Amino acid sequence: MFLYGLFVMVVIEQTRGYFIAIFGAIAVLILCYNRNSKKFCITFCLVIIGIIILLKTNVIGGFLSSVLDSSESYEKGATGLIRLRGMAVFWEAFKRNPLFGLGFQTTGDNAITQSGIFYFNDDGFVGIVGQIGIWAFIIYGMMLLRFTYIVAKLFKIKQYTKGTQLLGFLVYLFLTSISLICYWNTTCMLCPILWAIFEVGYHKGMTSCAINS
C-alpha cells in the first residue's frame, strides 16, 4: 500500500507540495529510526549521497524550476511565484487588521485584490493568517506546539520508536503548512485524527516509561 500510494502521488497526482512533505517525512523517519550511532552515520551518508545524485542529475534543479519559473502557464502548474505573491498580499492584510485579516469573503475560499485573485488554501498557514488573523496562531499554532512538545517529550524519556513515528507526522504537518495545510474543508478531518494519534502515542509512551522505571 505504501508503494502504491507513492506511485499514485508521483505518477498520477503530481502535486509538488506533497513530494516535499512526503519525502521529507520519509527522510526523517529513515534518519531517526536507528539510534545506533554507526547505523545513523551510514544512513546519513546514504541520504547525502542520494541528494548529491539528485543534484548532479538536475532532478532537484528541474523541480525548483518548475515551481518558480514564471514562463510556464498557470495550467502547467508553475504556481510557486503566484503563491509567493498571494502570501505577500495575505501578510499585508494581517498587518492591517491583525484581529480578523481579510475575514470571510463572499467569494468563498479566495480573495479578490488589486494584485489579482488569491486562494487562502493555496498559501498554507499564511493564507489562514490572511483570512482570520491572529486566530490562526491559536487554532493551528497551538496544535503544532502541542505536537512538538509530545515528540520532544518522547525522545527525552527515550521512547524512540513512538517518538520517531510521530516526528514523521510532525515534519509532514510543518511541510504541508507551506501550501497544502490540513485545515480546509477537504482535509480538515486530518487534524482531529492526527491529534488523537499524538495523544495516544504520548499516553502509551509515558505509561511504558513509568512501568520500566
UniProtKB/TrEMBL annotation:
Q: Which GO terms describe its cellular component?
A: membrane
O-antigen ligase-related domain boundaries: 6-140
Topology in the lipid bilayer is annotated as: Multi-pass membrane protein
The main place the protein resides is membrane
Q: Which InterPro entries match?
A: O-antigen_ligase-rel_domated (IPR007016)
User: One Pfam family for this entry, by name?
Assistant: Wzy_C
* Record key words, sorted: Membrane, Transmembrane, Transmembrane helix
Q: Give the protein's recorded name.
A: O-antigen ligase-related domain-containing protein
What stretches pass through the bilayer?
Answer: 15-33, 40-64, 125-145, 166-198
On whether Oxidoreductase is a keyword of this UniProt record, the answer is: no
Report the locations given in the UniProt record: Membrane
Q: Which domain of life is it from?
A: Bacteria
**Transmembrane helix keyword on record:** yes
